[in-house]
Amino acid sequence: MRIALLTIVFLAILPVSLLFGQTDHAALKGSVQRIKVHGVGLEKNLEGDSPDRDVSIYLPPSYAKQTKRRYPVLYMLHGFTDSDELWFGFRKHWISLPAIVDPAMASGAAKEMIIVMPNAFTAYQGSMYSTSVTTGDWEGYVSRELVAYVDQHYRTLPRAESRGLAGHSMGGYGAMRIGMKHPEVFSSVYLLSPCCMSTRFSSRPQGTPAPAEAIRSTAEVEKADFGTKAMLASAAAWSPNPANPPLYLDLPTKGGEPQPEVLSRWAANAPLSMLDQYVPNIRRLHALAFDAGDEDRMIAGTNVVLDRMLSAYGIAHTYEVYKGNHINHIADRIEKKVLPFFSTNLVFAATKK
Predict the structure, then answer these.
(1) Angle between helices 260-267 and 226-238 (to 10 degrees)
(2) Which domain holds residue 133?
(3) What phi, psi does 322 have (nearest 5°)?
(4) Domain identity same for 318 and 292
């Protein structure tokens, strides 16, 4: 009788979730920090952007309690006109990354990892994650300075095998550009609807000036249409000109006439043009995947070319076209494709000494 009574008391103090073998998913939430990380390579950029960049960091549910545990890191790059503030839910947006990651990790669909996203919103509303005197060295900021800071200040597994790189749209472009140049930093790469993989030529009638040609100051950029902003941001990243104030860039058209020298500089920054040079590096990647919605026709089309080029070189990769447009299934893709991809391909165990 005494043993039965003790058993009843013991069961009464156990959480209901343990009694029935269930996990309280609502309690298993990560935490988010938003910090500043200085970029030496971003100093003195001609756009006038601050080199002290906001960076949002997701720490997984166990991070606070398991103080001796180290984690892989997924570096996520947002798209053009977006920011880490929007993606991390500080302001209402079409996506909230923590709201996607929490249930995926709580359910076991994704392994616990740190997720880092820098704010690449600039005077031209996007850095293109490239390197120029006008935008600053964003490629170096992501691949060297940000990684070094995170490894120094957080409990990471500080090696390429435990670092992933992913991005959406402009961020997908950045992930491909940086990933194929730096396999010593990132081992696995995922591109969500990557833009700008090839040089895009305007369908505007020759001799008709592009609206970007009328922009005379960064203050006017905010009022411009999306295409005009994209042209200016691309020019700032790929055809900078320190001798051409106040925008410090060369546009691919002048008076509506194509500028072959500028267009060649843009082509030199297109991943499909760059790929042949970086085949040895791409072979060093542990895993590479990319996708796009079938309604996102231009991007889906460049993904077809990327798939064909990688296949010609015998480089293993995963490629998928799904039903959707540029943004309507990105949250679902992150939950069901991106997080499982990195859960499978990153190394989660510390190296034995």
Answers:
(1) 80
(2) 32-198+277-345
(3) -125, 165
(4) yes
Burial 208-236 (b: 16+ CB within 10 A, else e): eebebeebeebeebeebeeebbbbbbbbb
pLDDT, tens digit (0-9, with 9 covering 90-100), for 315-326: 999 999 999 999
Residues 216 and 194 in one domain: no
CA distances from 173 to 126, 169, 188, 349 (A): 12, 6, 15, 30
- Give the span between the Cα atoms of 252 and 231, in whole angstroms: 8
Are 81 and 216 found together in one domain?
A: no
For residue 165, what is the enclosing H or E element?
strand 163-168
Quick count: other Cβ atoms within 10 Å of Cβ 322? Answer: 15
**187 and 219 share one domain:** no
Q: Are residues 130 and 38 in the same domain?
A: yes
Q: How many domains does the chain have?
A: 2
Query: Do residues 166 and 75 make contact, with C-beta atoms less than 8 angstroms apart?
Result: yes
156 lies in some domain: yes
8 Å CB contact between 192 and 330: yes
pLDDT tens digits, 222-266: 899 999 999 999 999 999 999 999 999 999 999 999 999 999 999
Cβ atoms 57, 79 nearer than 8 A: no
Residue 115: which of 127, 129, 132, 100 has the closest Cα? 100
